[in-house]
Amino acid sequence: MNDPAPGIIPFDSTVIHSDSVDCSKPINRSNLKGKAIVITGGASGFGKACFEEWASHGANIIIGDINDKAGTELVARMRASTNNPNHHFIHLDVTDWPSQASFFKQAASLSPHGGIDCVMANAGVAIAPENAGFEEPPDYSTMDSPAAPPMRTLDTNLNGVMYTTSLALSYLSRNPGSERCQIGKDTATRDRHLILVSSIAGLASLPSQPIYAAAKHGVVGLFRALRVTTPIKHGIRINMINPYFVDTPILGPMGAVVLAGGGMATVPDVVEATTRLVADQGIIGRALAIGSKTSAEDARAMGLELQTKDQAVWDVHADDFAQSDLFVRRIIGVTNLITQAKGWAGFVSDVARKVSGATWKALGY
C-alpha cells in the first residue's frame, strides 16, 4: 500500500467492519432461534412487524412501548401463536431515563438465559405541528417569557435513542455466553448486536420536517461514531436501517395522502432488511436503505446495480460515505500539517498565551 499524503493519518487496520451487504444472499432465519431481542417502540410499526417475524422463528422478544394496551394485546397474541411464554411487554417511555433503565433491567431478568442478544432502538414519533411551529415561530420579541418550542420529536427520536444506546452497550457487552463479534462468523448461540433505526431523512434533507430530520441525522452521526469503536471496545456489532417513507402510524394520515401515488417503501421490505442484519452475525458496521422496489431499467438509469429482481434494499454504508469521510480526513490532515509545522514551540506558545490571558482576566485586567 502506498504511503498516505503528508498530514493524512491512514485508517487503523484494526477497524472491524464487514464488506457491503449482499442482499441476494438467503437469510438464515434459523439463527434467530433462542435469541433474546429487545425492541423499543415494539407495539406498532416496524417494531411490531419485526416482533411478529422474529418470534415466528423462535426468538424471545421483549418489547417496550408507551401504549400499554397495544403492547399487552400483541404479546398475548404472539404467545398464543408461537406457544412461547418468553415474549413480554414492559411499559416504556424512552424519553425518561429511569423508565429505560428499569426496562432493560426487567428485560434481562425475563430473558431465558439472563442476558440480551440484540437491541433494536426503534421508538420514534413525527409530530407535524412541532415541525410546523419550529419553521413558523411566533413573534418572540413581543413576549416577556416565551415558552420553549415543543421538542417531543427530538426527545424521542434522538435523546431516547441515546438513552437506549447507552444501556444497550452496557447490557450487550455483558451478555452471558456471548462472544465478541468477528468478521466472517455469521452464526453463534449468543450475540451482541445493536440496531439503530434512522430514516432516509437521516441521509438527505427533508423539507418541512426540520426537527425530525435533525434527530435522524443525529442517529446517523451516532452510528458513524460507534461503528468504528464499539466492535473494538465491546465486541458489539452495530448496524442501522434507513427506511424511505412507509405507510405506518408514524407517517400519519396526511403523510399517506401527500405520498399517494408515489413510490414508497413497504413494511415487509423493512422487516426483511432488519432480519438480515439480525440473523447474519457477520454483518458489522453496515447500514441498509429501504426504498420502493426497483426494476433493472430504473436502477441502471440511476447508476445502480441490482443484486436481486425488483430490489428494494440497498447497502448505504460505508461506501456512500467514503467521499465525505475522505473530505473530513483531508481537513484533519491540514490541521495535522499546521500542528507539525508549529512543532512543540508552537504548542508551548499557544498554551502560554491561553494561560496568560486567563491569568490577566483573573486579575481583573
From TrEMBL:
<dbReference type="InterPro" id="IPR002347">
    <property type="entry name" value="SDR_fam"/>
</dbReference>
<protein>
    <submittedName>
        <fullName>15-hydroxyprostaglandin dehydrogenase</fullName>
    </submittedName>
</protein>
<dbReference type="InterPro" id="IPR020904">
    <property type="entry name" value="Sc_DH/Rdtase_CS"/>
</dbReference>
<comment type="similarity">
    <text>Belongs to the short-chain dehydrogenases/reductases (SDR) family.</text>
</comment>
<dbReference type="GO" id="GO:0016616">
    <property type="term" value="F:oxidoreductase activity, acting on the CH-OH group of donors, NAD or NADP as acceptor"/>
</dbReference>
<dbReference type="GO" id="GO:0005737">
    <property type="term" value="C:cytoplasm"/>
</dbReference>
<keyword id="KW-0560">Oxidoreductase</keyword>
<keyword id="KW-0521">NADP</keyword>
<dbReference type="Pfam" id="PF00106">
    <property type="entry name" value="adh_short"/>
</dbReference>
<dbReference type="InterPro" id="IPR036291">
    <property type="entry name" value="NAD(P)-bd_dom_sf"/>
</dbReference>
